[in-house]
Amino acid sequence: MDINFKKLGKLCGPGSIVAAVVLVFICLVLILYSSEVGLASEIGIREPVFTNVDFSSVPQSVVDDAERMADELVGSSGERHQEVVNQLLGSFIAARNADIVIFFNSGGMGWNYVRDTPGWESILNGITDELKALGYRPLILNYSRTGKGLWNSIKEIIEASTRYTKKVKGMEKHVEFIVDHLPELKVIIAGESTGTVITEESMNYFRDRPNVYSIQTGNPFWYKTEGQERTLRINNNGTCEDAFSHGNVPGMMWATFKHWIGLSSPDEHPGDILKWLRAPGHHYSWQYTGISSEIIKFLEDNFPEKN
After folding, report:
1. Which of 5, 69, 155, 218 has its CA 20 to 30 A from that of 163?
2. pLDDT digit string, tens, across residues 246-282
3. 44-47 vs 138-144, strand pairing mode
4. What is the pTM of this model?
């Protein structure tokens, strides 16, 4: 059989090679994404850290349920299984001394510590102070939804664009474990920016659980929210419209370009996505009256002052 190398060369031109590389890359991502079993080692309650947990005071039925839930999330054996059990039982023990538990979902890739999210660190401090003033004992649990590394970042982008069809289960189960075993407890699922997507999806799951609430800031413009009871959404910090939440892409591009070439003004409204893309108005902090006043009203409406 004769091979026409000229025709073969035409078929394998630069465009075909690029298309083939892109196709292979997409296939690899889909295979990796679809084959993931359970949760990455960094996913779950990141703060506080629950290690060497003393389970002696925990009812056996609760321990058994933690084991069952860990089986469901990450499999029935291995170090990761025990980590999930520790997280569930550790959060249960900590929550027994609280009235309200706040699960926080950070923006960006979803792996930030609270201290690395200064705007929401101030909001969490403000919420804590307000709840204490109302007579409650709040507990903050920082939930990490993404592991470190390139592949985990790619999967996070895919998950965010598909309403966290895989990752939302981990979030829901951590909250459900607390709610089921401490029925008098109230839970606030909080989220910022891209973290509001998994927060909102979790609230859909807990739609009929009257002791679960949500506070969200800076919802992504591509994610269409629905009417939701016991939920506060803030997409304006009171100083200007959030470019990210309202889909002002040209405004974000222009602000980013000006920042890159050093033409940004100190008077411009702060806000960014993933540290490098400027998004005027996408900045939420307790210092903004428009933020703190709305949250205080939400808390007072839903959590009456204790005598």
Report:
1. 69
2. 888 888 787 777 777 776 665 566 777 766 677 888 8
3. antiparallel
4. 0.82
Domains of the chain: 38-237+284-302 (3.40.50.2300), 238-283 (no CATH)
- Nearest in space to 190 (alpha carbons), one of 268, 275, 291: 291
- Which of 230, 275, 221, 214 lies closest to 248 in space, CA to CA? 221
What is the three-class DSSP state of 220?
coil
Sequence letter at residue 269: H
Q: Which two tokens stand for residue 181?
A: 């075993």
Please tell me the distance from the alpha carbon of residue 244 to that of residue 149, in angstroms, as a whole number.
25
Cα–Cα distances in angstroms (integers) from residue 86 to residues 28, 49, 68, 111, 196, in the given order: 33, 9, 13, 19, 26
Residues 6+ positions from 271 with CB-CB distance below 8 Å: 242, 243, 244, 278, 279, 280, 281, 282, 283
